[in-house]
Design brief:
There is one protein chain. Helix 3 (70-82) links the parallel strand 3 (60-64) and strand 4. The protein has a 5-stranded parallel β-sheet. It has 257 residues and is of the alpha/beta class. It has 2 domains: 12-158, Rossmann fold (3-Layer(aba) Sandwich), CATH 3.40.50; 170-251, no CATH class. The chain is built from 10 helices and 5 strands; from the N terminus they run E-H-H-E-E-H-E-H-H-E-H-H-H-H-H. The radius of gyration is 20 Å and the shape is globular. Helix 1 (23-33) crosses helix 6 (147-158). The model is unreliable at 1-5 (pLDDT under 50). The chain binds iron/sulfur cluster (SF4) (3 copies). One iron/sulfur cluster binds at residues 20-24, 64, 90-92, 97-98, 143-144.
Length: 257
């Protein structure tokens, strides 16, 4: 390289995972296959799921998974200290997702069920989202994440913008699609309070929304109750749907304190 022609450094990006099925990282891999421009715009330095890279000098960290062991906190804090921007990748990282279902149950019962007579060998505690441990700068919601939304978030971060995550309910997208409401055919749906951005894919295919993208910032709980009342249902009837992805929001770590 000649003097004066210093090449501009690309932002360094790293991917990390905690308790998860790794489906969100797989969605990232899938998404990058058709967005090679993103690979040109960044330098990936750590991505165990897809490459033998384990660098610790990075600007943007995408972190998948819930924190389920005291030991996880140390590693997450180390990632936080290094990253200029830390992004929660997917529902496990954002809401605690299905990992937090165990928080609804007595710890000893869960530990014996999972680990049997060797329960004492394994370190585990109440599942929590990343934001319960460190500051999170942005989230990509969903179980799994939406591949196009991942691309839009990366593009926004690269130009220093706030990622465009919808804060309106799934019902908006559902009504725009002209779907018959699930409540009108005897079902239950979290659409009035669940975060949109998925194109209301579940109601579109006849299933009630379970709020995998979390709950909107200012949910209209009275409107949700009215919808339930009209359908002859109670809040308890809906909790099964709510808990699948939002148990941490309901009980925190529960009895795992
Ligand atoms: S959010 Fe869903 S798809 Fe993503 S890692 Fe967690 S369980 Fe897997
Ligand atoms: S409640 Fe569910 S099915 Fe009904 S309009 Fe809202 S998102 Fe669609
Ligand atoms: S409709 Fe609800 S459960 Fe289905 S993908 Fe969208 S937010 Fe998730």
């Amino acid at each position: 390289m000649t003097a004066g022609s210093k090449k501009q450094e690309k932002p360094k990006v790293a991917f990390f995972d905690f308790a998860s099925c790794e489906g969100c990282q797989l969605t990232v891999v899938d998404s990058l296959q058709t967005h090679l421009d993103l690979l040109d715009a960044v330098e990936i330095v750590n991505f165990r799921e897809a490459a033998t890279l384990n660098g610790w000098d990075f600007d943007i960290a995408f972190v998948e998974g819930s924190i389920t062991r005291p030991h996880d906190e140390e590693r997450l804090r180390r990632i936080r200290e290094q990253a200029k921007v830390l992004v929660a990748l997917g529902a496990c990282a954002d809401t605690g997702c299905v990992n937090a279902l165990k928080n609804l149950l007595p710890p000893e019962e869960v530990r014996r069920y999972v680990y049997g007579e060797h329960a004492d060998w394994y370190e585990t505690y109440g599942a929590r989202p990343l934001s319960a441990v460190v500051k999170v700068d942005a989230v990509i919601p969903g179980c799994p994440i939406d591949r196009e939304e991942f691309v839009e978030v990366v593009k926004a971060l690269l130009v220093g913008k706030r990622p465009p995550i919808p804060d309106y309910p799934v019902c908006v997208e559902c009504k725009l699609k002209g779907n018959v409401c699930i409540f009108h055919v005897g079902g239950i749906c979290m659409g009035p309070v669940a975060r949109a951005g998925c194109g209301a894919i579940c109601p579109t295919y006849g299933d009630g929304c379970e709020g995998c993208r979390g709950i909107i910032p200012h949910p209209n709980e009275n409107a949700m109750k009215e919808v339930l009342d009209e359908a002859g249902l109670s809040v308890d009837d809906m909790m099964h749907y709510f808990r699948m992805f939002n148990a941490y929001r309901e009980v925190g770590v529960g009895q795992w304190e």
